[in-house]
Amino acid sequence: MRPTLSVVIPLYNHAEVVLTAVESVLRQSRPPDEVVVVDDASTDGGAEAVEKFARADPSVRLIRSPRNQGTPRATNKGFAEAMGSYVYGLSADDFVLPGFFERHMRALEANPAAGLSYGDFVTVTQGREILERTPSLPAQEAFYSPDALSDALYGDILEARGAIFRRDALLEAGGLIPEFEEMSDWYLGLAVGFRHGLYYVPGACHAKRVDFTSYALKRQADRRGQQEKIRRIVRLLEGDGNRDLIPHFVRSAAFMHFGVDAVEAWIAAPDGFTPTRTALLQEPIAEYMRRKRDKAQRAGRLRNRPHFSRPATWQKYVVDYTPEYLRPRVSSLVEGWRRDRKRVLVYGAGEHTVALFKLTSLRDAHIVGVADRSPTLRGERQWGFDIVSPAEIPGLRPDVVLISSAANQDEIAADLAYLGTMGIEVVTLYGDPDADKSEPGVARASAVERERGAFERDVMLQRVRELVARWNREQRRVVLYGAGEETSKLFKWTDLANANLVAIAEPVNLLQGERLWGLYTVAPETIETLEADTVLICRPDPRGEIRASLEALERRGFEIASLSETTMAKAEAPRRRASLARSINPTP
User: How far apart are CA 386 and CA 378, in angstroms?
Assistant: First the structure.
């Protein structure tokens, strides 16, 4: 017994084209066994036109709805009423192309396990222009098991308008889910294909009309509505009856179809990201971050730092700047804040804050906002909060400001000291604040500040320009020492990238093996194995400790350069003494 086919056509105010849709179906070389037109309370006479047509053709029947319920519900009503073992949904303003049903029903009869057959479609614009549809799958007829289909798709859409469904598989998936609106056919095609497999027949089989009044386009223009529907789809997948679909949605990168909207749908959502959602959205997240990097690069604020960038004074904080330190430290703070019902503002919107939210219990505190001094971050959001300027902190009425920075902690604390007069506590994470109040500590801080002066923009520009010009003249190959904030400034503000750079040496082993600013990061002890002859110290060195650690390289012929005045003076002293000795005792 051959399988039977029912065509379902939802109708709402398309009197001028609905008969074209019906006739295109009935003219097929393999006509359907029935055509079910579901009128969704039309007001333009379309239902009456179909009713008149149905009197002349018993294979056409009209079902009237007393009130308008929307396209998905009207279509589902037709699927429920249909008598065929296979069903095909056709919009009233679309039409099918010759040979469609014959080719696809033959394929389905030979492959009864398939949940649907799928073909390509063309788009017809208002001006009757026909646009070809690029196939979602390789252009050869084949059956795709659920796993094969998952691997073959990469965020592409299965247009359910070009699909004939096995009726039982369609009903098992829930039909067109009304809450998904124009996304309902996208979900239906994937849900059935990922459970029962799909048979693909290449070639156009369906033509859809597109104009600015169409059902889908009107809803796609509403981004907030789109994002809410994406959330509904993900939550449905997380439900008990649909978890079997999650691995297939992940493997096929299905949510790439919605681009960054799929990510932004969850950024401000109260329940946010979960491991399942992160897996489902991994490709859109990658695209979202790529766009963020491009935007940052255009604004001139691309940092290119590793996730755990270390402070300039890393010798002081390196033991503390680890998850093993941060977790108990933050947990203790959060416990006290929650007990005292304190409102917390986080100062800093960089990688350090990302690490705190991901690796510690900071998110359990009563967070009231995130502040950052960078003007380019205004209007951005982090962890569901608008990023505000430091001047706006008092207006958010926090009890506590947590400084989320290792590299600039002390500087930020000094800037925020005025908040104490308002009763707002400023909390730091690293070092012993009481130890820095002693005279030696003050002297040490002053020395560091003087060294940092060497890394101000105007000072660096001239020094780096002179060094790079000489190195290029002498054909020197340069290793940079340090992968922190100062190195980022050198690449951003100077022409250091024009030098013949070989690698970055960094003593913190967590950073070794990273690729920063196009260079691999290596351990300092491997410098002599590189094809290089120059080392530039790219961080403050007030006591000359880095310079001293590189003396063995200098004895082997390496030039050791620095932007630090203290270190440069120490490096120049032996040369001046040698020059003075030559002037007193000239070589014969």
Answer: 8
Distances (CA, A) of 393 to 337, 397, 425: 18, 7, 12
300-343 confidence digits (pLDDT tens): 555 444 334 444 443 333 334 566 678 888 999 999 999 999 99
Do strands 343-347 and 400-403 pair parallel, antiparallel, or not at all (unpaired)? Answer: parallel
Q: Which residues contact 72 (CB under 8 A, 6 or more apart)?
A: 175, 176, 177, 178, 180, 181, 184
d(CA 229, CA 258): 11
Q: What is the pLDDT of residue 317?
A: 39
Phi, psi angle pair for 206, to nearest 5°: -145, 140
Q: What amino acid occupies position 231?
A: R
CA pair distance 391, 381, nearest whole angstrom: 17
Distance separating alpha carbons of residues 191 and 245, to the nearest angstrom: 7
- Tell me how far apart the alpha carbons of residues 145 and 136 are, in angstroms, rounded to a whole number: 15
Q: Position of tokens 């690293």?
A: 430
In order of their start, the domains of the chain are: 5-137+163-177+197-214 (3.90.550.10), 233-298 (no CATH), 314-437 (3.40.50.720), 453-583 (3.40.50.720)
Terminal CA-CA length for the chain: 114
pTM over 0.70: no
**162/160 Cα distance (integer angstroms):** 5
Cβ(119)–Cβ(98) below 8 Å = no
Which range, of 37-41, 66-70, 506-510, averages the lowest pLDDT? 506-510
Contact 473, 449 (CB under 8 A): no
Beta-carbon count within 10 A of 94 CB: 22
Q: Which element (helix H / strand E) includes 37?
A: strand 34-39
Amino acid in the structure at residue 219: R
Distance CA 351, CA 353 (A): 5
Token duo for residue 362: 């900071």
Contacts of 470 (CB under 8 A, 6+ apart): 476
